[in-house]
Write a structure and sequence with these properties.
- By secondary structure, the chain is of the alpha/beta class.
- About 40% of the residues lie in helices and about 10% in strands.
- It has ten helices and seven strands.
- A seven-stranded parallel sheet has the order 3-2-1-6-4-7-5.
- Strand 1, helix 1 and strand 2 form a beta-alpha-beta unit.
- The two termini are about 55 Å apart.
Length: about 240
């Protein structure tokens, strides 16, 4: 990821250390590390933030404190104000995905402002932004806590980055075509020895079906070796185990 394009998360007048910690955890989940605090109610550092961060200590340790929101975004070229409340301001309102697109396209520094838990951003603070970013939400219950708001927008930004999906296998080379052919040949040979291919007129069709099954999963080399080990065990003599 290009570090210059990571948005700064600015928490304006956050009230509880626990919420700051939870916001830090949400940030680090999606690769964001730069937090700025504007006039935190209980001062900074706050002993309640660390446990709530659940290991996101790097975010808390590097957090910078400012007296005003204006100071906190002074070096930013693009600023979004996160709010679900209507304001008496004529300014653009964008969705989270549009916000993320604009941040990803900008080489300069950007920031997202979040207001205090109870009241949200003041009108003057929203006016510092280039646009309001609003999450589609139930109009009859539009209350998001601070960490929830941070995680929603951080996640949307992360989709434009190279963050790996948790389900993606890492460190396991994909099986080569030769390994796959070796497995298919190994299985076909053992099945033929056991008389599996019957009647003979259906042999090729059955082999084609097996090939289709085996080429679907996208095996890794480790998985391929494991399957061949299973085949060898099934066709070989049973192992004897010593008595305990």
């Amino acid at each position: 990821m290009n570090g210059a394009r990571k948005p700064v998360i600015v928490l304006v007048r956050p009230q509880l250390g626990q919420n700051i910690g939870k916001a830090a955890r949400a940030m680090l989940n999606f690769g964001l590390t730069e937090m700025r605090l504007v006039a935190p109610r209980d001062g900074w550092p706050n002993p309640e933030a660390g446990p709530a961060a659940s290991g996101a200590d790097i975010v808390l340790e590097q957090a910078a404190v400012f007296d005003t929101a204006e100071q906190a975004v002074a070096d930013c070229n693009l600023v979004f104000a996160s709010t679900v409340r209507r304001r008496d301001l004529v300014m653009p309102v964008v969705s989270p995905d549009e916000m993320a697109d604009r941040i990803a396209a900008l080489p300069e520094r950007s920031a997202i402002l979040f207001g205090p838990e109870r009241s949200g951003l003041e009108t003057e603070e929203v006016a510092l932004a280039n646009a309001i970013v609003t999450v589609p939400i139930n109009p009859d219950f539009g209350s998001l806590n601070l960490a929830q708001a941070v995680i929603l927008l951080a996640y949307e930004w992360s989709k434009r980055t190279s963050l790996a999906q948790p389900t993606v296998k890492e460190g396991e080379p994909a099986a080569s075509h030769g390994e796959l052919e070796g497995l298919i040949g190994h299985l076909n040979g053992e099945l033929a020895a056991k008389g599996y291919f019957h009647p003979p007129s259906r042999t090729q069709a059955t082999k084609n079906t097996l090939r289709t099954i085996l080429t679907k999963p996208g095996w890794s080399s480790r998985e391929m070796k494991a399957i061949r080990g299973i085949i060898r065990t099934l066709v070989g003599p049973a192992r004897t185990r010593g008595k305990t």
